[in-house]
Model the fold of this input.
Amino acid sequence: MDLDFAPEDLKFRDEVRAFIAENFDEDMRAKAAQSKNGHLDKEAQIRWLKKLGDKGWIAPDWPVEHGGTGWSLTQKYIFEMEMALAGAPSTSNMGLRMCAPVVMAFGTPEQKAHHLPKILSSDVWWCQGYSEPGSGSDLASLSLKAERDGDDYVLNGSKIWTTYAQWADWMFCLVRTSNEAVRQMGISFLLLDMTTPGITIQPIPTLDGPPEGDQEVNQVFFENVRVPVANRIGDEGKGWTYAKYLLQFERGNAYAPGLSNQLAKLKTIAKLERSDLGGAMIEDPTFRRKLADLEIKVEALNATELRVFAGRSAGEAMGATSSMLKLEGSQAQQAVTELALEAVGVYAAPFVRDTWAEIRGETNVPRAGPDYAAPIAPMYFNYRKTSIYAGSNEIQHNIIAKMILGV
Ligand SMILES: Cc1cc2nc3c(=O)[nH]c(=O)nc-3n(C[C@H](O)[C@H](O)[C@H](O)COP(=O)(O)OP(=O)(O)OC[C@H]3O[C@@H](n4cnc5c(N)ncnc54)[C@H](O)[C@@H]3O)c2cc1C
Done:
């Protein structure tokens, strides 16, 4: 199998590189460098998406008639790789990558005409309302009630872990419209305006940093929220089919390019002098061995991802491979953040508050640390999520066992 890029692909890679160099500006780069999760703030994120939109590169996975790029799988891979290597946030947000494919496949002509252009222009931010307290891996047990009242559904209940709900204009949401014996058959798929009266968003504080304005996950409460029946996707009770269709778009990104970018940063940090060590972490043989192990892992993952892309280009099905890539990719992501934490040591939490000093009534002086160390601890805590979301790693093990071992 030939894993080298063809000359026209290399030309395309240069074009992508030139575009990123010109448009991923200083402000965005500075924010990306301090980011705990690779995202920018909402304003910068939208600014970047609009630049990609103006270039016609915002929706590589969409069909051309809806505004897609018409790229080959290799071009899509190159695009994702170059974006990740530059530290630019990917276009795989909830509107473009998750909601839009469902609207395209199952929406009415009115729903397509209303929502798709606004997703493409990045004028509307979407969030995903799937998980509920007690209904995550076992999603079919969800219970957010939607009762029919005239031309509306009336919603009562809550959604949880809703990423960036505080920024969202719209939510795509799974609701329970009936209590069938087969739980999946009582679920419907709604699109709802987040400004509808009765919706309350409550941030969930997480270990990765102060929640003010920067929280990633939320609980969203619904109290007699009226959603027009016209906002339902497809048939009542068929939401599970649409939800499963959507989930295939949640996974499937390449991990290796982002990991290569993180490893390069990690190596730079490990070479810096630490006054508490009297040297740099890279000089420690145990640390170097761990780093080398991880680099080999990422190289192997990269080769596997390229092989999978080459296979997909030739029409091969993904099968359990996407679960294996998710497992390996998420574990490597976590390993990078663990080593980064080791590399910066005591500087990892430069803003630790001395609560005993506060109790004694003394002024609290946060421990000073270099700028490069500031995002490391938040990043370490933030990346614990990668083995939970998009189908937890235990669930991926189950899928692999079922599809490959037949158990
Ligand atoms: C940062 C973050 C962002 C998220 N964003 C969103 C979002 O925007 N929208 C949304 O709808 N959801 C979101 N989620 C929710 C995510 O999809 C769920 O957390 C995930 O599906 C796991 O569900 P749970 O948290 O209820 O855990 P549970 O399903 O209760 O699982 C708890 C533990 O038990 C294990 N387990 C469960 N079932 C099995 C099984 N059958 N076999 C073996 N082990 C099992 C799990 O692997 C896990 O370790 C997000 C989660 C995180 C962490």
Q: What stands out?
A: Strands lie at 126-129, 145-149, 152-160, 170-176, 187-193, 199-203, 218-228, 232-233, 273-274, 279-280.
